[in-house]
Write a structure and sequence with these properties.
By secondary structure, the protein is α+β, with helices and mostly antiparallel strands. It has nine helices and 18 strands.
Length: 297
Amino acid sequence: MQRFCLIANPAAGGGARLAAAQAALADAGLDAEARLTEGPGSGHALARKAASRGAAGVIACGGDGTVGEVASGLARTGVPLGILPAGTMNLFAQEIGIPGRLEAAAALIAAGRTRPVDLGRVSDRTFILCGGAGLDARVLAAVSPSLKRRLGKFSYYLLAPLEALRYDYPPIQVVVDGGPTLVATQVILANVRRYGDGYDLAPASAPDDGLLDACLFLGRGVRDYVRYASRLRRGRHLTLPDVQLRQGRSFLLRPANPSDRVPFQLDGDYLCDLPVDVQVLPAAVSVFAPAGDGAAG
């Protein structure tokens, strides 16, 4: 029997969720050895180690953060990624049609169909959902791990208004595929359609098209961003003249004023301040997914 590695986030549902995941995999006829993440970067390291030891696949049990870390560890290894959704939003699982029920998700992995998925890369870090520079990264940096554990996604709603008032909205220069310099105050680089609390940010984005979609917000203050948030909730932000969408394979983001500090986040975690050079890694990892466009047996 082929042996899989199950990497679980103990914060996503605790021991009961892990036991349920192991039972679902066993019922699907899969032999999986469980490993628990211990902090940021742990999922990446565990996945890399499992791949080097010849695992038939590595299964991420957790939310989008866990899925992103495991995917980064499997990038370019040829070892496929399985997903058992166990987070708050599970945006990536929704994006590629992975069912929310553990039993159905485990059966999908046992079926063995995979599809290639792109990753975004910043230096030695990758992301599976999105990267962002500006206000969203500022809010994410302000949320402490303890507050996030207590309140989940509501911690962001709690701090977002305060950070929006404090933030200076410094201009960001954006160069897409070596083209002309664009200027915005918020840039979100999307690998999938959905963003944040499930908002349809980049309707044309697909995780296997070899591209990232850059959503550029040009406004300079709180009123503009209140307007953006209202339109984004209704999926109408792209009708605004000061919101632009650009597709590309490489993106250089830097402060227009070198003295400005502009934060940057990957998949919901603050990473660093600008400048950053972002590139697409096409078909970087294969994911067990339903049959359909881009699926391969």
